[in-house]
Amino acid sequence: MSRSDFELKTPQQLIAMRKAGLITAKALEAVKSACVAGVSTLELDRIANETIESFGAHSNFQLVAGYNHTICASVNHEVVHGIPAPERILEAGDILSVDCGAEIDGWNGDSAITIIVPDQSGQVPDTDLVRARRALSSATDGSLWAGIAALAKAERLGEVGAAIEDYIEANGKYGILEDYVGHGIGRSMHEEPPVYNFRTKLLGPKVTPGLVVAIEPMVTAGSNKTKVLADGWTVVSKDSSDASHWEHSVAVTETGVWVLTALDGGKSRLESLGVPFGGLEG
Ligand code: MG
Ligand code: MG
């Protein structure tokens, strides 16, 4: 295959990929349940790994050269690639993005969620800062689903980025990262083609059944400029503004789209958006 080629998946291969996607979703669900003030990001990493291994799968993040963890845990102005650490204790009201992936039977899932950390009693502080963080996370999540909805109707993949950008612009004064983008996914976690979170001059490849992409808007409450910390991984906003990251691995099928890393395959959310659910089982 040349660099610009990518593999379209057969229905049987998509069903195999759904297994990896569902395990990824369950790992993130377990992380979300355990996420409370006082917990360290390394403990969340342990929980994600335990969940993935309980299904006979393994972490694909650990296969990335030089990375030894199951999740990336990015707190507040950290946008992506935050490294879990025992001394990184979460506080109530923190905005935490968790990115995770599982591999099973040679297929990959990749997904990310943003959590506003609750206190020990499950409450989230009611402050202006927390309200702003909620709005940022909600706009980023909404833009992901706007991108997924666009994928269902798109002729060309570039329409996804345009939909994400339009959604973000309509929902606040935010920065969409341009240094990092989504990607194809399948036998490897990162494959062609790139999936931009913004409008470009590139039409992108034709959208046809069998295309599987990880759509992952990374959005800040300020500037879209970033820098990498001295640890060589953690990406932070240059202006220290808060950040949110949401991601799903999404397949195009003959009948619609199938959100491989959503617990329900995306069914309920797609229905609310008027987008055909294209799940191949259940
Ligand atoms: Mg990811
Ligand atoms: Mg990804």
UniProtKB/TrEMBL annotation:
Residue ranges of domain Peptidase M24 in the record: 16-254
CDD domains per UniProt: MetAP1
Alphabetic keyword roster: Aminopeptidase, Hydrolase, Metal-binding, Protease
CC annotations in GO: cytosol
InterPro entries the record matches: Creatinase/aminopeptidase-like, Pept_M24, Pept_M24_MAP, Pept_M24A_MAP1
PROSITE patterns to which the protein is assigned, alphabetical: MAP_1
Gene Ontology biological process terms, A to Z: proteolysis
A GO term for molecular function: metal ion binding
This protein's record includes keyword Hydrolase: yes
Hydrolase keyword on record: yes
NCBIfam families, sorted: met_pdase_I
Protein name: Unannotated protein
Organism name: freshwater metagenome
